[in-house]
Design a protein that fits this description.
With 421 residues, the chain is mainly α. The chain is 58% helix and 3% strand. Among the domains are: 3-74, Winged helix-like DNA-binding domain superfamily/Winged helix DNA-binding domain (Arc Repressor Mutant, subunit A), CATH 1.10.10.10; 343-417, DNA polymerase, domain 1 (Orthogonal Bundle), CATH 1.10.150. Strands 1-2 form a two-stranded antiparallel ribbon. The chain binds a DNA duplex (13 and 13 nucleotides) through residues 18, 20-24, 31-32, 35, 62-63, 65, 67, 74, 77-78, 107-110, 212, 216-217, 275-276.
Length: 421
DNA sequence: CAATGCGCACCGC
DNA sequence: GCGGTGCGCATTG
């Protein structure tokens, strides 16, 4: 409940800031939510993180700083023609729809990807706690220092602080805790911070010529790439060492896995990726570890889990891809990737995992419905076509896609798996 | 003082 | 040319 409430508040706030032409950054969002609803910044940050994870809110790095976008609003006007349906829908109700297609992009530059990027892009951005180790400590000092040097970068500080604070205290769950007395919203998302720093560093470190690639919005997004991956292009800190291990160890929960899935960007980043879209994230992520493996499928490495992953890959990929290509005509891989990662152990998926999955799959709004109906992994396995089409009160178009391309696939995969076992 | 409004420059398409 | 974005400054409460 409160969650939906927060979702509304936060999205509203982001919209509001945007309309005011102010950057929707962590600090402003927290502040506005507090003013309007009295919510503590901490809580707001935590909720924001959740939204990011489920792709309801997109975290992007734009012009060197972090920004948040309302996924539902991000529309890409230039999409192909096939979305007629979408268009109509969009037209009809202003808000929500667009989400499926758009979440992909973060900021102005919308993903190069096309309509169906849903799947793929989505993944890129998720991240989660897991590691959130203390990224660069540069941030720290400012943290306890309580003083914030330049007013201009207040937000950054805030963000950083959050990160560090959080990272230290609570590696994972975003759900808050930690009443930190920060000025703004200090305790926020650990993940973000990472990005921040990167952001800061990135530009500077890069040669003038190339900057534009990242400098702009690009490398951003990787929103939450917290997992360990952060790149340390310029820096090398302890984490360099840590990084790698971290990734592998990540395993823990299904949700976690997703984050890692950077998949294709590793390769893709080059071609279209980086320039236009913010997929970049991956780029960041990709840099480190991914790169090593980079050749074909970075994702593999990211998937820590030993258990089923590989298996799924085998089963699912094939047809998922096929279906996907039929539907969209493109990037089948991505879908499969996602699927594979997900299918780890459906039975263990929590409601949040399910929601995250669908958000990542490009259906952030519908993900909310799953959450509302408290669909966890087990429930998902029991869902029938009619349940998806009518039981969730979601629009038919997305519902069909969700059922045919995800629910069915996940169920099939799951059962195949178990047969084998 | 914070919140808000908005001109303007940028950027990608 | 178009639309999204957000800095920086002006205005408002």
């Amino acid at each position: 409940m409160s969650e939906s409430k927060y979702r509304e508040w936060i999205l509203d706030t982001i919209d509001s800031l945007r309309s005011r032409k102010a950057r929707p950054d962590l600090e402003r969002i927290c502040r506005m939510v507090r003013r309007r609803h009295g919510s503590e910044p901490d809580r707001t940050c935590a909720e924001l993180e959740k939204l990011i994870q489920e792709q309801t809110v997109l975290k992007v790095n734009y012009k060197g700083s972090i920004s948040y976008r309302n996924a539902a609003k991000v529309q890409r006007r230039s999409r192909k023609k096939d979305d007629v349906a979408l268009t109509t829908a969009a037209r009809r109700s202003a808000v929500e729809e667009a989400s499926h297609s758009d979440l992909s992009n973060g900021d102005s530059a919308f993903g190069p990807v096309d309509q169906d990027e849903e799947d793929l892009e989505a993944d890129t951005s998720m991240a989660m706690d897991t590691d959130s180790n203390a990224d660069e400590e540069g941030a720290d000092e400012s943290r306890d220092g309580q003083d914030r040097p330049s007013p201009a970068r207040t937000y950054e500080d805030a963000a950083m602080n959050c990160a560090s604070a959080r990272a230290v205290s609570a590696p994972c769950s975003p759900s808050g805790n930690r009443p930190v007395p920060g000025p703004g919203c200090s305790p926020g998302s650990g993940l973000d911070c990472v990005s921040f720093q990167k952001a800061a560093e990135r530009p500077s470190s890069l040669p003038p010529s190339s900057p534009r690639a990242l400098a702009h919005n690009d490398w951003a997004y990787h929103s939450a790439v917290c997992p360990a991956e952060r790149q340390h292009p310029g820096m090398q800190r302890d984490k360099a060492a840590a990084t790698k291990p971290a990734i592998q160890s990540v395993t823990t929960s299904p949700g976690t896995l997703k984050n890692n899935v950077k998949k294709e960007d590793g390769g893709k980043a080059e071609d279209s990726g980086l320039s236009s879209d913010q997929l970049v994230p991956d780029y960041a992520a990709g840099l480190d570890e991914t790169k090593n493996v980079s050749d074909g499928r970075p994702q593999t490495l990211s998937l820590p889990s030993d258990n089923c992953t590989f298996k799924n890959k085998i089963d699912i990929s094939p047809f998922t891809a096929a279906e996907d290509s039929l539907l969209n005509g493109g990037k089948g891989d991505e879908v499969s990737v996602k699927t594979e990662k997900m299918s780890q152990n459906l039975l263990q998926w929590t409601v949040a995992d399910v929601a995250s999955y669908f958000s990542a799959a490009g259906f952030p709004e519908q993900a909310v419905a799953f959450r509302t109906q408290e669909i966890d992994g087990k429930s998902l396995l029991l869902m029938q076509r009619s349940d998806v089409l009518t039981g969730l009160s979601i629009r038919l178009g997305p519902a069909l896609k969700i059922y045919e391309r995800h629910v069915k696939v996940l169920q099939r995969t799951h059962f195949l798996e178990y047969e084998d076992l």
